Batch of 4 targets.
Target 1
Amino acid sequence: MISRRDITVAVIAAGVSLAAVAVAQAPKPAVLGPAVFTWEGMKHGATDVGTYAQLTRAPTATLDELEMHVTTLRPGTNSHPPHIHPNEELVIIKQGTVEVLSGGEWKRVGPGGVVFNASKSPHALRNVGDEAAVYHVVNWKVGK
């Protein structure tokens, strides 16, 4: 005889199976192929400290996610408090003078400077100049 417990287990198993099928069939984000991002084509939205333009956040042929954006910071402002994340990123300074928290020290960087934020390393960025600071961020995630 089939018990109430048997029916409950069967219903739960069926629900889990249906959920697994739904996840497997969910559309996957399109893989980013060749792309060009022009300054004129970027949509810069206002933030409380300047502007932000998201270029892409998508998987590529070799990365789980490639995220790129451009930030403009007003003088005397911070992008965010010091933080960490498992992914790595490059910050490329286009304009202005910033200080970055890197390796436990604040370091000054100007136009053309490049910052590498290592995985799980505390980092932050602040505009210490008299003009807007503009920088590009390239951030990537790889599954392990």
Note: Residues 93 and 111 are 5 Å apart (CA to CA).
Target 2
Amino acid sequence: MLVIRQRIPARPEWDAELHLTYDARSKSRLRCFTASGEDVGLFLERGQSPLHDGECLLADDGRVVRVCARPEQLLHVTCASAFELTRAAYHLGNRHVALQIGDGWLRLLDDYVLKDMLVQLGAQVEAVEAPFQPEHGAYGGGHHHSHAGEAEFSYAPKLHQFGVRK
């Protein structure tokens, strides 16, 4: 069994790949298989953010393993206006739904009840199969290093400093 205990920055080269759903990428303890069929035991630090597509892991034997987001059945949501899309996102967030946010669209795991709600709100909902990489959330814990300078994360990492006065 290939044993993996450590997350490492993405590398240009790797020795094996893990194709995992979002649910599997969210677990710190997991038995799975590489793309070539090798048995893998993941023993990652608990409380960290889910693994993301392209992230690399270091196996105990020194091999680098790349994580690939496996395509899943999703709902792709668009709306006629930014207000309607914001309203749809609000109602999904109110139900604590994992949500991937794009430019003018939302994606969530396929769910007929949520699909019906979105349609009633006036959204256009299309079934797609694609990798799912939802927002992790402001209070998710783990992953505390700064992403300053990256377009997607250009804010100071102060979300977890509750009760601090300056």
Note: Confidence is low (pLDDT under 50) at residues 141-151, 153-166.
Target 3
Amino acid sequence: MARRTKEDAEATRQQILDSAEHVFAAKGVAHTTMADIAADAGVSRGALYWHFTSKTDIFHAMFTRQHDANKVVCAAARNPEEADPLAQMRSILSHFLRKVVDDPQQRRVSEILHHKCELAGEQADLRQHLQATGDEIDQDIALSLRNAVQRGQLPADLDLRRAAIAMHAYIHGLIDNWLLRPDSYPLDREAEALVEALLDMLRFSPALRHPA
């Protein structure tokens, strides 16, 4: 019975997060209330507050759920034993660009983060959370790049920090731009070419080299 209760509680928690995604996407985070989320999830206010202390708490959990799932996909490129880290990076980046188009949940969460989330007022704490996650992503990218450098796939004098910043901004910008103008170009079909252009920048740009 206790195990079943734990499973039921987790199912309710995931149901609340699913509802939060839909309501945040429809109304924006700032204009969503805890009552809105409870109503969409079909749970009482008491049940909602049993799982989450605030709307910010729900946002953190929603974002972490998606981030953790995506991070699993990136593990191969970060693995120092990976024989072809550059191929892994190419595959991972193309996968994420296509996923924004093809996966409704990924698209919904991306839309919330890029265009439905104001980092001010009662949501000011979200800025710190997203900043910490951004730092973590930069570090993971730099680690993947280091593996590619050690395998001789990228220049030995690549500035890992600057290259990681550029890669993060490039992918973030592509997603942000496409979400704003989804009819302007087919991101899913252009994903591989856009990623290859990014890798060419890593290979050939003098601005991403350590000074001699």
Note: The two ends are 67 Å apart (CA to CA).
Target 4
Amino acid sequence: MANFSEYLPYAFALIIAIPFLVLLRQFVHSYITLKNQEIKLLSVKSNSENKTHSYERMTLFLERMKPSNLIQNFDKKIAIHEFIFLTEKTINEEFDYNSSQQLYITKNSWKNIVDSKNAIIDLLHSTYEELNNNPDLEEFKTVFIMGYMNGDDYIAATIEDLRREILIIT
């Protein structure tokens, strides 16, 4: 019996320590779980901000591509072929600058943006081909805008699609 009484303080300490260690383990486990959830929420929030920023940038790109905005960009004394070249160059440069935004935008919206860009460039060239009697720049710009207005407003439709998608995301 004397041997057992020597271990009694250790047994008592063990009986007290085991529940404390179990509670400490549960606390640490739940703390780690909550921190992981917090990190996931922060990354989702950050990703949502990136998506929102991408949609804003692409909407701005589309607004700048509208013919009513394009015709105001350059000097009124340049030749039509120079205007077409500079306008196409500006559109392509801005598109290239924003091309990384496709990571955050749906495939369908990105396709619509690319199609809108290509349609504006095609409209520039087809308007030039229609006016083969060497009109002045003001006449070209007028016909260019009228050609856009008489067709489908694909830029406004693409912006509206982007607006709907961003409402779903946020």
Note: The chain is about 85% helix and 0% strand.
